[in-house]
Amino acid sequence: MRIIRSTKNPIIQPKDVKPLHDGHEVIGVFNAGVAEYYEETILLLRVAERPISDSIDTLYAPYFDVSSKKLKVSKYDKNDDDYIFSDPRVIAIKETPNKFKNLTSVSYVRLARSINGVDFTIDDEAFIYPFNEYNIFGVEDARCTKIDDTYYITYSAVSEKGITVQLVTTEDFQSYDYVGNILAPENKDVMFFPEKINSLYYMLHRPVIHSVGELDIWLSSSPDLVHWGNHEYLFGIRENKWDSSRTGGGVPPIKTEHGWVVLYHGADEHSRYCMGAVLLDLSDPTKVLARLDKPFLEPEFDYEQKGFFGDVVFGCGVTLNDDTVTMYYGVSDTSLAVCDFSLKEITDELVRER
Ligand code: MAN
Question: What predicted TM-score, i.e. pTM, was given to this entire model?
Answer without folding.
Answer: 0.98
